[in-house]
């Protein structure tokens, strides 16, 4: 499917009651991190009221002299920002009546049985309460062998649960993997193809794909600040062809900051953008509501919430209803519904357990005249 020509409009910060000086301070933090060598590439987009009010790019696609410079629409490996997009795919099926959040996972994956597995529902996969592990014990071994995604699915199906479902919260990539497997079994399509047809192309996200989507690694941003890699890094690391095009639904999506701004705006608009409806208003609202109230571990369906236990990468100044996600490659995307504000910061290395991303996010949030 050919992507539609849909883009966010641009506007001046002052028109939407945002301080230009404040946004410049936020961008200066990102620029300084590149100049200091903490990261070698970074982009950021800030939007308010459906209009982009800041778009900056710093550094080079590869950490070497002469490499192409980064632009605001450069493509990054998102890492775990992939997860809420996988959840969006599942929620499209919920909207169509082809999937229920309260169905047991075994309804769609019959081999997923034994030791409380029958008690794990689809919603537990999306809210990190299933008891499945984040990574498999054989994760490195499988990656070293260039195992197909189906081998990870098999490992997740038979993985030992860490706790009884819906009794605890534990961030879990393998739960998202099984949610993706359900999408594929229900639709009969690869998740990467379903997302392209149902999300990326309709929204005009032309620089987005699960896996490489035909893009060349050389045309994307290098993960990390050094070109030096050991044998395992070259074979299955973040810049290897295997890992970049595997299409793993917990961390294998590529995208640009402007594309993610469209995705966040779709969520802020209740599932619609540019005349294109991706999710029903009910599904969009459900995705950014807390589904773990009984555990006091706030999380939506795929989307992290401001007070989620695992991280705070959105900064301390965003409003209560803020949702988004972070990626281990040094990426964050968040939207603040109260202020109609969204911010995407894509870098190529996590700095100080999110210290850099929080500082920039705080400066962005502080720039808004509520």
Cα-atom radius of gyration: 19 Å
Strand order of the largest sheet: 1-3-2-12-11-10-9
| N-to-C SSE string, H for helix and E for strand | EHEEEHHHHHHEHHEHEEHEEEEH
| Average pLDDT taken over every residue | 96
Which blocks of ≥5 consecutive residues have pLDDT under 50? 1-5
Q: What share of residues is helical?
A: 25-40%
Report how far apart the termini are: 40 Å
> What is the count of helical runs?
12
Shape: globular
Could you characterize what this model shows?
The chain has 12 helices and 12 strands. The strands form 3 sheets. Strands 1-3-2-12-11-10-9 form a 7-stranded mixed beta sheet, sandwiched between helices. Strands 4-6-5 form a 3-stranded antiparallel beta sheet. The protein has a two-stranded antiparallel sheet with strand order 7-8. Helix 1 (20-36) packs antiparallel against helix 12 (355-366), helix 2 runs parallel beside helix 6 (173-187) and helix 5 (149-157) packs across helix 6 (173-187). The longest helix is centred in the first third of the chain and has 17 residues, at 20-36. The protein has 370 residues and is α+β, with helices and mostly antiparallel strands. Helix content is 33%, strand content 14%. Mean pLDDT is 96; it is low at 1-5. It is globular. The termini are far apart.
């Amino acid at each position: 499917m050919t992507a539609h020509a849909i883009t966010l409009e641009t506007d001046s910060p002052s028109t939407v009651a945002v301080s230009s000086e404040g946004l410049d301070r936020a961008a200066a933090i990102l620029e300084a991190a590149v100049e200091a060598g903490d990261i070698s590439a970074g982009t950021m987009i800030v939007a308010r009221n459906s209009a982009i009010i800041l778009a900056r790019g710093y550094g080079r696609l590869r950490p070497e002299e002469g490499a192409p410079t980064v632009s605001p629409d450069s493509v990054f490996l998102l890492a775990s920002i992939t997860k809420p997009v996988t959840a969006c795919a599942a929620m499209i099926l919920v909207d169509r009546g082809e999937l229920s959040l309260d169905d047991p996972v075994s309804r769609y994956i019959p081999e997923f049985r034994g030791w409380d597995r029958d008690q794990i529902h689809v919603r537990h996969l999306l809210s990190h309460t299933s008891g499945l592990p984040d990574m498999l014990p054989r994760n490195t071994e499988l990656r070293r062998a260039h195992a197909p995604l189906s081998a990870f699915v098999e490992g997740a199906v038979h993985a030992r649960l860490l706790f009884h479902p819906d009794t605890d919260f534990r961030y879990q990539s393998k739960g998202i993997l099984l949610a993706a497997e359900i999408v594929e079994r229900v639709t009969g399509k690869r998740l990467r193809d379903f997302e392209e047809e149902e999300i990326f192309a309709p929204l005009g996200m032309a620089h987005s794909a699960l896996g490489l989507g035909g893009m060349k690694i050389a045309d994307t941003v290098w993960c990390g600040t050094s070109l030096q890699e050991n044998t395992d890094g070259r074979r299955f690391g973040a810049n290897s062809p295997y890992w970049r095009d595997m299409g793993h639904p917990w961390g294998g999506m590529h995208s640009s900051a402007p594309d993610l701004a469209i995705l966040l705006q779709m969520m802020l608009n209740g599932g619609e953008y540019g005349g294109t409806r991706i999710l029903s208003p009910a599904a969009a609202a459900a995705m950014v509501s807390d589904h773990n109230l009984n555990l006091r571990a706030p999380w939506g369906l795929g989307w992290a919430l401001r007070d989620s236990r695992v991280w705070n990468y959105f900064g301390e100044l965003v409003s209560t209803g803020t949702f988004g996600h972070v990626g281990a490659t040094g990426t964050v995307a968040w939207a603040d519904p109260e202020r109609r504000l969204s911010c995407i910061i894509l870098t190529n290395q996590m700095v100080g357990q999110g210290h850099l991303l929080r500082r920039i996010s705080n400066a962005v949030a502080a720039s808004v005249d509520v």
